[in-house]
Design goal:
Length: 381
């Protein structure tokens, strides 16, 4: 799909309704739940193998809020630049918002993301993604709080390589698949979105404890690691699986994952970590995580730290904005969810010595005494 223009139709009919994809007695425009927090999102990241630049792109639809929004964030050095856009949701097959769009070229294998040159920020992007491994269905995430479903979401994940061009802050990066790798996911279901709701009894927030996510890519395989561990050690969500580039080889579950992180003193930032898979088939694996670059993802992108721009929040028929942040000048704003470009080195197992790269994502929410973190104070006790 390229420069898609939605045809006119009566009622809630859209172009998708001409395809045999229905799952309920509704048009595709309507979800089968009336939960305001139903969403359907794309996430992509693209990084240079030396950590010189890092791009994150997201686009989401929120059918019960009648909103579609998107962002692209480029980090190079200490410069963090964002283009973000929001509009009213119409035809769900139209995956564009202002200058930003996603094109599905070959489903589950090849996609394109674009940010057209614009007046709001010196950021423009034209990138083509090709998956390295088969798209993988991650475990369903279900969380109920005080009787209400807080999370009920599905997600596919995939590692891959990029080609194209990124322009940011007067610098043009020529993106080639030998040096520029990345991760994408597609998730849909229910999770908190849009404007803040009255908390009532639900004052503990969306998650608690440690969120840690690391899809890592090596030459002939990838490892997908997910963990949400509460301060008491209870795990609400976890996954550890090795997926080979060869589609004829079955995924291999690696057993219960373990972590041993080093926290930068006075912060909630992981400066290094070891992820372990003691029960992996073929022998125990330790993966050393070496961060190369940080992206403080909650700044300007809609992930919830800013009251005036959140994923799914209605901004108007169409609004496009640019945001620029200097990590040195704005150091007091560096808070929350961090996406790191990281180098991963395996010790042990069938790929002993393998070196790869990918995403290392983390967020400490409230208490996490294992690493000396209490409340929201960034200083370890």
């Amino acid at each position: 799909m390229t420069d898609f223009v939605a045809p006119r139709a009566h009622g809630s009919l859209s172009s998708w309704d001409d395809y045999p994809v229905h799952q309920a007695a509704e048009t595709v425009r309507h979800a089968t739940t009336s939960d305001r927090n139903f969403y359907d999102r794309y996430y992509f990241n693209c990084h240079a193998d030396d950590g010189s630049a890092f791009l994150i792109f997201g686009l989401g639809q929120y059918p019960n809020l009648a909103v579609q929004d998107a962002f692209v964030c480029v980090v190079s050095g200490d410069d963090h630049r964002v283009v973000r856009a929001s509009r009213e949701l119409g035809d769900r097959m139209d995956t564009s918002v202002g200058p930003l769009r996603v094109e599905v070229i070959r489903p589950l294998h090849e996609l394109r993301i674009v940010c057209e040159p614009n007046e709001h920020s010196d950021v423009s992007v034209d990138l083509r993604w090709v998956g390295s491994i088969p798209a993988f269905e991650e475990p369903r995430q279900y969380v109920r709080r005080h009787g209400r479903t807080l999370f009920d979401s599905m997600r596919l994940a995939q590692t891959g390589r990029w080609s194209g061009t990124i322009r940011s802050g007067g610098t043009t990066f020529d993106v080639t698949p030998d040096r520029w790798w990345g991760t994408r996911d597609r998730s849909w279901g229910i999770r908190p979105v849009g404007e803040e709701e009255p908390a009532g009894i639900r004052t503990e927030g969306q998650m608690t404890g440690m969120w840690n996510y690391a899809p890592m890519q090596f030459e002939d395989h990838s490892i997908l690691y997910i963990l949400n561990e509460h301060d008491d050690g209870h795990r609400e969500h976890e996954e550890a699986v090795r997926i080979w580039n060869d589609p004829d080889r079955e995924p291999e579950w690696l057993g219960r994952p373990e972590h041993d992180a080093v926290i930068t003193p006075g912060t909630r930032r992981i400066e290094s970590s070891t992820l372990s898979f003691p029960d992996a088939p073929g022998g125990a694996i330790d993966v050393a995580v070496e961060p190369l670059m940080d992206c403080w993802l909650m700044l300007g992108t809609g992930y919830g730290i800013e009251a005036d721009w959140r994923h799914g929040m209605y901004q108007g028929p169409l609004v496009v904005q640019g945001v620029e942040i200097d990590y040195r000048r704005d150091a007091d704003r560096l808070f929350g969810l961090v996406d790191q470009v990281a180098r991963f080195t395996q010790t042990g197992g069938v790929a002993d010595g393998a070196v790869g790269s990918g995403l290392h994502e983390f967020f400490f929410i409230g208490d996490y005494p294992r690493y000396g973190l209490r409340g929201w104070d960034p200083r370890p006790t």
